[in-house]
Amino acid sequence: MSTELERTVPVTEEAELERLVGDRALSTDDHKNAPAFVVRPDAVQDVLFDLRDEAGFDHLSCVTAQQYEDRYETIYHLKKYDDPTQEVSVVVPTSTDEPVSQTAEPVYRSADWGEREAFDLVGIDYEGHPDPRRILLPETWQGHPLDLSYDQDKPQLVTLAEHANPLQEDHRDAETDTMFLNIGPHHPATHGVLHVKTVLDGETVADVEPDIGYLHRCEEQMCEQGTYRHQIMPYPDRWDYTANMPNEWAYARAAEDLADLEVPDYAQVLRTMGCELSRMAGHFLALGTFALDVFGDFTAIFQYAFRDRELAQDILEDLTGQRMMYNYFRLGGVAWDVPEPREEFFEKTRDFLDGLPTKVEEYDDLLTGNEVFQIRCVDTGILEPEIAKQYGCTGPVARGSGIDYDLRRDDPYGYYPELEWDVVTEDGKDNYSRVLVRMQEVEQSAKIVEQCIDLLEEWPEDDREIQSNVPRTLKPDPGTETYKAVENAKGELGIYIRADGTDTPGRFKIRSPCFHNLSTLAEMSQGEYVPDLVASLGSLDVILGEVDR
Amino acid sequence: MTGPVPLQSDGETYLLPERIADLTGLGEFGIAGESIAALLGAALVGTLMLTMTAVAGPWAKRKITAAFTDRIAVNRIGPFGLFIIVADAVRLISKELIVPENADRPAYDLAPIVVAGSAMLGFAVIPMGSGIQLADPEVGVVYLFAVSGIASIGLVMAGYASANKYSLMGGLRAVAQNVAYEIPLVVTGMSVVIFAGTLQLSEIVAVQAEPLIELGGVALPSWYAFVNPFAFGLFIAANLAEVGRNPFDTPEAPTEIVAGYQTEYSSVYFVLIYLGEFLHIFLGGAIIATLFLGGPAGPGPAALGIVWYIVKIWAVFLLTQWFRSALPRVRIDQLIEIGWKGMLVLSFANLVLTAILVGAIA
Amino acid sequence: MIGLLKSMATTMKHALDGNTFTVEYPETTPDVSPRFRGVHKFSQERCIWCRQCENVCPNDTIQIVTDDQRNGEQYNLHIGQCIYCRLCEEVCPVDAIILTQNFEFTGDTKDDLVYNKEQLKAVPWYKDIDPLESREPDRGSWIGEGEGAVDYQ
Predict the structure, then answer these.
(1) What is the pTM (predicted TM-score) of this model?
(2) What are phi and psi of A462, to 5 degrees?
């Protein structure tokens, strides 16, 4: 792995940033991960434009909104695609009486959905936002759930009559030749409960609007009610429920940064191995379901992919005791060492890895080498890298558009820096490249797992520490804030935590990669055919559990 | 060697209704008796085909798909799970029949019958061997293609009458697809007619019985699959599109338009449409067998004809399932493009070449 | 065309080799890992009614009722609500609540899945695996010598 990072952007020391923001900054704040500038609500675009164009912060990673006793606050977490370790946060406080703030949407397209979510859950209005609607909750919802004055106990029934009538636009319109079509929420191709409002011109897609929120489970709020030490960790598994373990790392990384916890090297190796196995399982599923979308039936490739996922799950079951909802990580370590007898576990894992090349060959024969598959996927669902960056795309979706961005390498954590592996990118920008990226990432993950096995096998017996010394109750200092991200199977999964002095987080914000990847669907599929829309949706590999949280 | 269908002394084919009439003595009752005999014959053939469909739909398809995907599939009820057929029939028929509020009633109800019925009509002229053939008109091939084309009317009726956008899209796709592939199908079929010099199916079968070449004492019959493999390949591809199977199953396209024209059908209507689909696969198989694989011809006595005929159409069925397991679905625009720009051109080229070849030999 | 043929060859190879990766479930039961987390089993003899499991449970699955002398009266566990995180087993100082390997249980209604302590005691071992013998619950993270206050009391 290359540790040399290309720095094409000017060196942006904190002092330089301060000069750039100048007196538009009311004050500075120190988030644990990055410097933060507090900015007036009407100077948001101004500052963000400068940070993007002058300092090169081209990645709006996350928009966090929260309410304090005396003010609302929006935080824009900025990063660079070239070097995500360079971060800066822009904090925009607004008054409690009139929470209005300038929108960041003209600067970063990804702020569109981000600010809609902030409005929906916290209740900040964004001036100039092109589409100021709720995004996760129904249109008729009363109040904003993460608002301090929100009555949690008041039941809200959204009756069918109050919903927007999906048949409303069904009538014939003499002016247009288009047809409005609801794809989902119950449709074979949406892999969950996603509703895509589609306008068709014949078979051609004229307009697409994903409607999300059907699987909203208040994950952020649940985490705000759990104790740092134990009660939060079971839940990350339920965000991206196909490749679960890397999600745990996102919380672990943020919380360990917040409370300054050390993790023993041995535990880091175990974490790395578990996450890569889980990533393989997730990619197998992504491959299988994508094939399902393109082949059109539960055919061979889907079953073969599931068979291989099963093998990875078996190994993870031996390690963690569960097939999907592992709850394997603990703050400062992991829950279990490798099961006894160790040799048997290593052998089982090695068998799986040894069998992989033949299986990958089989996938090549069945999928990527198949001419019909190629004519279906090549040059469909084009996602230009500039657009991908604007929307905050990460993971295989970004890498399929040629964006060389992988937090495992670029913002190293765990044991990744010590291991030999490559970041896979493809320049095709189409559905086919995204499939290729996933297939090659499976091989890279196998490489990582293999090295981890070797390391674990040789690890001296008296140094197998799986858990560092962590107090039973964690109470980070009030006001400590951090935003940390890891690379899960779908992309950059970030967690923002603000401690409020108790043993539960004051604000817990999840930056979901699928959320941002899904927002590009319209860009990808407009002007293409319905089958391409379905294929593009499959190639984005969105997991609705993570989109809606 | 005479044709697989025993001939009467005057050279006319001895058809199944006549045979029944003679056997039962119904022939003595004039027209009425012959009609009853014809109905009995039709019932016999219909039962045979429906039985095969019943085996194929709930059982064989599952078993075959399972084999391709390394699974076990139905094996609980009866030997090899065969009684699942009964269980499935009961299950499907006892379901509630839900008719959409805005459905266009007579068309909505008729569509399943048209889909299933049109396929049944086709079997009337197929020589199935062992003396089973209901009718043998001189224009058999034309009749065959005509009735199998009726199904697309049923599909568009189903799609339009369901008052569902997905159904409508499925119906439109079905029509576009059938129009695009019917022509290459018929044109390729015509090349066989040029070879055989007749439109009568029993004659086409009889002509194919002549040996093509001798290879070490084994005579290779002049089945048109051997005479013109290119036309055979074309015909199989066009037939796949005609019956709407992978990689050409765009009218249904489960992941795109839910279930296409059959989205709104449930219970008995669904059974009829499902039945119709399988019957169409078998009819496609029967056409392929008759035009290209020597009909019911095969080793052994002529009485075994029906066995060979069943083996051949099941082979075609297996082939469709094999394609289904391995090939992605093409997009609708690609499908039409392949149809009009590829298949049509190739099929006409094949026709012209065949005509020149046959003319030169003559 | 070669790609198509290769695809077809691949699936045909699978069809002909006769291997299946599914099993006939009730007859052939899957092997579960000794660490597998299934239905809970409760031991009243061991339980000291310390309520640590009730406190640590992330979603209030466990409900303990004691009298005013802190003698245990009820131990209810909503198996349908449980997320199988195993924190109750980890926190238990006397191994009174453990997660067996048993994953086969049904209920007609949600209420059927609320197990009281008698039902929890009667949960059978799966394939006679006693989790306590086959695995050693990780207490490391609970018995740390950190400076944090010992709560859960």
Answers:
(1) 0.86
(2) -85, 0
